[in-house]
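Thread amino acids onto this structure.
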């Protein structure tokens, strides 16, 4: 081997030489490692965003503006464009909306993944679109408990909603209020229907009769919060709770306090004398008797049921009756059913209310078409999939009730008012009707509210001929913007009524029959087409 090669092999590199050779390699390796980590992190970040990205309108685009103008109709458009699950940007963060009818029951009932969203239901929070303070859903109220505590509360509360006097109390309240109308009436019935329900509800809660002062106070409270919501629509800062709002809460609780003291006094009489005027299904009495609830908890529940609970049957009655007036064939059939059930000249019999199947279908269709509660909130407590879309933990998920009810994939011609959808024995499509929620978290007052609504409408059709007021057209598809409860944007539902007067006569076969006449000149108020719907000259 040549000497030059042997010399090179035997030469030991110096430390300085090694550092010069290795330094660039170390630097290059470090740079490559960092770059690799960045690429991997970027990939996972991109993949995560793609995985969790939920499509929806952006701030400022036309669909975004449509939702701000009218959430109830706007969300239908959002779901038609983006599918069963869609995102929507709000000042407090992105909210996820869904109408996926096939999975609604799971979202309502699966407590492993979904919890009630109560963050904005507090007298210390903001008046957001979740409930707008028409109902003061106090933090920690009986409606918001979970698990064993929730089940125990339901055991106490549920007997009230099967109260045997619901129909009687509603009929009594109806007669007291409508007697002021006289032989004919034309105007807003929404306000009176609210009063009818409130009077009946308080009677049932504690055998307490609302005073005129109480009624005026409750109307003032509701009017205050309705106006506040309308004035602050679309402006988060404009709907924060104020000192005036807190004063309204206090005034509302004062009515509850008077009822509570009344029941306590009656219980003292019962303890002393062995009997009192209290009904054993009165909720205030049941809660006091159990010894498990504070006076504050009872007052909170009272306010929820009287103020918030009254909205569902009142709105259901108003919009259903107005929709029936716009559909004379439907109205005629309902009137005929009522007359067949009670007789042409008899009073409404509480025991026969349940037999009014067609009227029940009319109310169900009214609740579908004009659902009073249009948004139901849930908080995602564990990442899950809804309609094949990944919903991250911590997300705010809101069910678009109105959009679910108006889904053309579920209902044919959903914009039409058609009670035949709910004909007796006919199956309701899965997730096609969620006006009261679903499962164990469904509205506990469903049965009571349906009985109230049927009693009011049965009394109305028995006592009056009903028609639209030609001078004031009802737009039943108008809603106050961004309200949890879908009040009409005009704040009223206007109808025209003329009292029915039944006159006995003997026909040519010497048989007694009843002819329907009216306490006013019917032809002055109603179009001939409306009269013909009842058969001939107003019969």
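Threaded sequence (539 positions):
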């Amino acid at each position: 081997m040549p000497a030059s090669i042997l010399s090179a092999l035997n030469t030991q590199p110096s430390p300085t030489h090694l550092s010069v050779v290795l330094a660039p390699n170390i630097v290059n390796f470090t740079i490559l490692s960092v770059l690799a980590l960045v690429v991997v992190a970027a990939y996972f970040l991109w993949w995560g965003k793609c995985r969790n990205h939920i499509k929806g309108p952006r701030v400022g685009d036309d669909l975004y503006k449509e939702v701000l103008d009218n959430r109830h109709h706007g969300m239908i458009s959002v779901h038609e464009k983006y599918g069963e699950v869609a995102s929507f940007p709000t000042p407090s963060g992105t909210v996820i909306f869904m109408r996926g009818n096939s999975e609604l029951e799971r979202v309502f009932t699966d407590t492993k993944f979904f919890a009630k969203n109560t963050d904005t239901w507090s007298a210390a929070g903001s008046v957001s679109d979740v409930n707008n303070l028409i109902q003061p859903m106090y933090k920690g109220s009986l409606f918001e408990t979970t698990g064993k505590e929730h089940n125990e509360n339901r055991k106490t509360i549920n007997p009230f909603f099967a109260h045997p006097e619901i129909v009687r109390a509603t009929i009594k309240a109806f007669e007291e209020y409508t007697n002021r109308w006289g032989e004919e009436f034309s105007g807003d019935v929404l306000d009176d229907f609210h009063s009818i329900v409130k009077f009946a509800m308080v009677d049932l809660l504690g055998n307490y009769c609302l005073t005129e002062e109480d009624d005026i106070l409750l109307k003032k409270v509701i009017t205050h919060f309705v106006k506040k919501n309308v004035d602050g629509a679309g402006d988060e800062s404009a709907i924060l709770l104020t000192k005036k709002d807190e004063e309204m809460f206090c005034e509302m609780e004062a009515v509850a306090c008077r009822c509570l003291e009344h029941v306590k006094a009656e219980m003292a009489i019962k303890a002393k004398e062995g009997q009192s005027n209290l009904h054993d299904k009165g909720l205030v009495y049941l809660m006091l008797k159990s010894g498990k609830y504070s006076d504050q908890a009872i007052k909170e529940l009272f306010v929820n049921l009287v103020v918030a609970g009254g909205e569902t049957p009142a709105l259901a009655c108003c919009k259903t009756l107005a929709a029936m007036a716009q559909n004379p064939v439907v109205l005629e059939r309902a009137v005929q059913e009522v007359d067949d059930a009670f007789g042409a000249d008899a009073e409404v019999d509480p025991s026969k209310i349940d037999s009014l199947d067609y009227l029940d279908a009319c109310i169900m269709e009214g609740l579908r078409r004009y659902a009073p509660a249009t948004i139901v909130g849930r908080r995602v407590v564990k990442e899950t999939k809804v309609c094949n879309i990944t919903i991250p933990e911590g997300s705010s998920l809101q069910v678009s009730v109105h959009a679910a009810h108006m889904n053309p994939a579920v209902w044919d011609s959903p914009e039409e008012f058609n009670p035949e959808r709910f004909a007796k024995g006919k199956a309701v499509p899965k997730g096609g009707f969620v006006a009261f929620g679903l499962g164990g978290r469904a509205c506990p007052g469903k049965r009571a509210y349906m009985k109230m609504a049927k009693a009011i409408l049965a009394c109305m059709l028995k006592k009056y001929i009903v028609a639209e007021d030609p001078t004031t057209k009802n737009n039943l598809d108008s809603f106050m913007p961004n309200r949890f409860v879908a009040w009409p944007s005009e704040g009223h539902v206007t109808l025209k009524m003329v009292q029915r007067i039944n006159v006995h006569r003997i026909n040519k076969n010497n048989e007694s029959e009843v002819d329907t006449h009216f306490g006013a000149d019917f032809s002055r108020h109603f179009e001939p087409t409306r009269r013909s719907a009842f058969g001939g000259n107003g019969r």
